[in-house]
Write a structure and sequence with these properties.
The structure is a single chain. The chain has about 425 residues and is an alpha/beta fold. The chain has 2 domains: about 220 residues, Rossmann fold; about 160 residues, 3-Layer(aba) Sandwich (Rossmann fold), CATH 3.40.50. About 45% of the residues lie in helices and about 15% in strands. It contains 17 helices and 15 strands. The strands form 2 sheets. It has an 8-stranded mixed sheet. A 7-stranded parallel sheet has the order 3-2-1-4-5-6-15, with helices on both faces. Helix 6 links the parallel strand 4 and strand 5. The longest helix is centred in the middle third of the chain and has 24 residues.
């Protein structure tokens, strides 16, 4: 039980009972299309692998995430959760989670900075033994403000690219004091969630928010990591003209050989209809780029934090700004040009008013990996030293096998002779 003065979600809602009903309906719909989590529910309920654990979570609280949270509770854990972004919580889903006897949810949409961190503190008052993070804000809060918890934390999991980058920097400095699985970097997450999930959900949200088509438009994708690759591929599939901006010469070359135009941002911005950032870094779109953008350009971000587009500089440059459409803020410049920012520069596929996040089937895979990683920490956490760890390959393969079985897809297996050949070094010409 939290000792914090910050209350669970029901205290923030006018009609929590109706919210619970609506949130449960969303969760049930998603679960129908999550065969991996369905399979793990049977195992977790039967075996209670998380019995005695307390899981503290900072995630995007929407229907798909909620089914992961409920899975952990069904596996025996007490779970406390809050949001990992001020705008990505679905309040009805948060209420549905909070109604579960083993789950407490502090996630509320539209909180300010103080409330956001108060909610994290409330989760940490539950004294978690395992953490599940999206962006690393909870892990940072533990190390900076609650170091007394570290000795009893078995380990953690990190969901997203930005969070893993922060964790690796922390680890390099010798400051990370418990083991954390880099769930973002494992194949069952990276190859599907980052590529197909980000590509599909970002563009779908932009299209629904603006009611505009991508066909024939000049779409600039900032960054050609896995997320950028997905956005570029999906935009090209909708007949957009795709330009990629990159700082890494190898990734720039890869984009070039995939058939995309590659330009510096200043050149790309001059002809852009849409600029979508996917870098996880700050100051990707800045003052000098605003100077060359055409009237009506759309600016959106698919990275975790709202730092990729320099909104401070844009506000200073603008003579007026107003809500042009729900989820779209127009900034009018002195020369009359209007630059349109979606979702306040936050991750557009989750923070826009009608955003639903990644497709259900994609998140089923990512959250399946999260679940088995929590199970692994419960069973074998004392075998992992403090620091960032790759997800054990056998866990990643386990999730792939469950998915293939659910899809009715069979595949080949290595013979003993093939396995021996691959493991040997003395087979020459």
């Amino acid at each position: 039980m939290s000792k914090s003065a910050y209350p669970p979600v029901a205290s923030h809602l006018d009609d929590p009972k109706d919210a619970v009903t609506d949130g449960r309906r969303k969760m049930d719909w998603a679960l129908q299309h999550m065969p991996i989590l369905q399979s793990l529910r049977e195992e977790f309920e039967a075996n209670q692998p998380l019995d005695g654990e307390t899981v503290g979570m900072a995630m995007h609280v929407e229907a798909k995430t909620a089914n992961l949270v409920e899975l952990l509770a069904l596996g025996g854990a007490e779970v406390a959760i809050t949001g990992c972004n001020p705008l990505s919580t679905h309040d009805d889903v948060s209420a549905a989670l909070d109604a579960h006897e083993n789950i407490t949810s502090y996630a509320v949409r539209g909180v300010d900075d103080d409330e956001y961190y108060d909610a994290i503190d409330a989760v940490l008052d539950h004294e978690p033994t395992i953490t599940v993070d999206d962006g690393m804000d909870m892990i940072a809060a533990i190390h900076e403000d609650h170091p007394d918890l570290i000795d009893t934390i078995v380990g953690g999991c990190e969901e997203t690219t930005t969070g893993v980058h922060r964790l690796r920097a922390m680890d390099d400095d010798g400051a990370l004091e418990y083991p954390v699985f880099a769930v973002n970097d494992t194949p069952m997450k990276t190859l599907f969630d980052n590529v197909h999930g980000t590509g599909e959900s970002s563009l779908a949200t932009i299209s629904m928010t603006t009611n505009l088509s991508f066909a024939g438009k000049n779409v600039v994708v900032a960054g050609y990591g896995y997320c950028g690759k997905g956005v570029a591929k999906k935009a090209a599939g909708q007949n957009a003209n795709v330009t990629v901006t990159e700082v890494d010469p190898r990734k720039a070359l890869e984009a070039h050989m995939e058939g995309y135009d590659v330009k510096p941002m200043e050149a790309a911005a001059a002809d852009a209809d849409l600029i979508l950032t996917t870098t996880g870094n700050r100051d990707v779109v800045v003052d000098e780029h605003f100077d060359v953008m055409p009237d009506g350009v759309l600016l959106a971000n698919a990275g975790h934090f709202d730092i990729e587009i320099d909104l401070v500089a844009l506000e200073e440059k603008a003579v007026d700004n107003y809500e042009a459409r729900d989820g779209v803020q127009a900034y009018e410049l002195p020369d009359g040009r209007r630059l349109n920012v979606l979702a306040e520069g936050r991750l557009v596929n989750l923070a826009a008013p009608i955003a639903l996040g990644h497709p259900v089937e994609v998140m089923d895979q990512s959250f399946g990996v999260q679940a088995v990683c929590v199970r692994e920490l419960t069973a074998n956490g004392d075998t992992y030293a403090a620091g960032v760890h790759d997800v054990p390959d056998e866990l990643d393969r386990e999730i792939a096998e469950i998915k293939l079985d659910a899809e009715g897809v069979d595949h080949d297996s290595l013979s003993d002779k093939q396995r021996e050949y691959l493991d040997s070094w003395d087979h020459g010409t």
